[in-house]
Amino acid sequence: MNILLNPGPVVLSDRVRNALSKPDLCHREQEFIDLQNKIRTELLNVYDLPADKWAGIVFTGSGTSAMEGMMTSIIPAHGKVLIIENGVYGERLTKIAKIHNISHVVLHHEWGDEIDLQKLEGELQYHEELSHIAVVHHETTTGRLNNIDAIAEVCKKHGNVPILLDGVSSFAAEEIKFDEWNIDACAATANKCCHAVPGTSFVIADRKAIEQMSATPARTLYLDLVTYLKNQDNDGTPFTQSVQTFYALAEALDELKDNGGWQKRQQQYWKLMDIVRNGLEKLNIKPYFDKEDCSCVLNAFHLPEGVSYQELHDKLKAAGFVIYAGQGGFEKSLFRISCMGEIKESDMERFISEMGKIIS
Questions:
Q1: CA–CA distance from 249 to each of 22, 53, 166, 229, 232 (Å)?
Q2: In CATH, what is the architecture of 14-258?
Q3: How confident is the model over 47-86, as pLDDT tens digits?
Q4: How big is the CA angle at 337 (ends 335 and 339), to the nearest 5 degrees?
Q5: Are the C-beta atoms of residues 104 and 157 closer than 8 Å to each other?
Q6: Cβ partners under 8 Å of residue 163, min gap 6
């Protein structure tokens, strides 16, 4: 079996894999509703969020579907969103806004750049009509963990503009301060830090933000969070859901809780990533960022001199490891490593050993 060091899908634990073989369910029966309600409750419990203020809205789709559902369902027709870009996924938020004709302004940075707070402040001063800011928490293009603390402080100075957070690659492993950051919604997925399988995504939304959109015509049919919330609060679902992936997510959330929650998961990721960073450093393979600028979930590294990504990938895959390429302009200079999923310290020590063989 290959050890997946890509940022999702992840290596599954036995208990999550076994959950996939639970009995078939009709999505209109009470057994499915019980499963759906359990997931919604446990998603809120990851960050101790009260159900009277927050709602977990869960549906079949990839992480991008959660991003698209959040952007199309929360921003009102008269609203305008400032989208912060410093990687592929910030730019994907802009693509969503363009496709759905959502009024928006873009604060662009080069991939990997730290977000310029002075420029952000300037945009907020100039565009007083802004209703939201959309930003990626962990930008896996480079592994940078964007400083949402600082962004939220700037937002507070300018009318406390609410944040739409892409938490696809941070939910369940990084700290997310839902109230302090004035988050209206956070988009995420099952197959990353939650350690479930692809096919289920979700949005954690402020109920008031959804209620404010209830009288507004929907921009989409399938991804309308207002419809989902209404149905799910009333023990229903608007569309057929992927029952087996729901089973996996429910089990994965139980496993997360049993293992000590997001804080312990973060510690475990860093324990594994430190093995990678320290081991590669000894092989003279440098990380793209200092540790304090990175997420625990994924780090990027410079390719070894004289070794192409394809050669590195193929030799590591033959040894049982799947790594991830750099994107766009980083394709020929970086590779990326994630330590999500059922991965042991011995796996990462063996990975470093295999890297050493390739380099030598």
A1: 13, 23, 19, 19, 17
A2: 3-Layer(aba) Sandwich (3.40)
A3: 999 999 999 999 999 999 999 999 999 999 999 999 999 9
A4: 175
A5: no
A6: 132, 133, 134, 135, 148, 151, 152, 155, 181, 182, 183, 184
